[in-house]
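ok trying this again, last paste got cut off
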Amino acid sequence: MRVVIQDNYDKMSKWAAEYIAKKINEHKEDRPFVLGLPTGSSPIGVYRNLIEMNKEGKVSFANVVTFNMDEYLGLPHEHDQSYWYFMHDNFFDHLVDMKPENINILNGMTDDPEAECARYEAKIASYGGIDLFMGGIGVDGHLAFNEPYTSLSSRTGVRNLTTDTRIVNSRFFGNDPEKVPAQALSVGIGTVTDSKEVLVLISGHNKARALAATVEGGVSQKWTCSALQMHNGAIIACDEEACGELMVDTYKYFLDIERKERL
C-alpha cells in the first residue's frame, strides 16, 4: 500500500488529479482507459482540477470510459441528489471531450435491481476491467455503499444503508434522515479490488479513525476499507488532518518513502 500525505485538502486533490491524468496519458492500449469514480465531498477538488487540466489540453477524456461506484435506489436522474445529477453537475458537463456514451452510472429507477447490478458487472468485464478506481470512504470506513460487515468479496448489488449513513447524508436532504433513500445500488468490495489500481481519498479529522483502520488495522469486514491492504495497487491520498490517529512511526514511514519517491 502506498500512502501519500499532503498538507491540506487542496494539495491532496491536486496530487490525485495529476496522478489520474498521468495514468490516462500513459495509456497506450487500443481499448479505452477505464476509470471508476465516486461521488460525495471528497472528490470535488479532484474533479475541479481534472476539469481545468482538460480545458487546458493537459488530459483528454475522449478515450476514457467511466463507471460510477453507486446510486440511490428510487431517485430519478433529474433529482438534484441523485448521483447521476451530481456527476454531470460537478464533472461530466464541464469536460470538453467526454463522450456521453462512455459514462456508466447504475440506474436507480430500475424495475429489476438485481438484473441491473448483474448488467453493470458484465459491462465492466466487457472492457477488460477497471484500470483505476478512485474512491472515498465514510467515517466508519465504508467504501462505496459497502457498510460495515459487508463481505470483502462482494460484487455489485443492492445495499441497505445504515442509520448512521443516512444521518450523515441527510445534510443533502434538508437534514432529514427519513428523506435519504434506505437503499442504494453499489459496486462491491470485490468489484473495486479487482481494479488494477485503487486510489482512495481520505481528508479531514473526522476520517482519522477510518484512515488508521485502513492502514494499520487488521483486514476485517467491520472496516470494509481494510480490504485495500490486500491490493497490490492500492494508494491512499490523504491530508494532514486525517493522520491524527496514525502511529507516529507509521506517519514518518510514509513521509520518508514518498520523499524518496520524489528524489
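PB: full thing came through this time. The longest strand covers residues 197-202.
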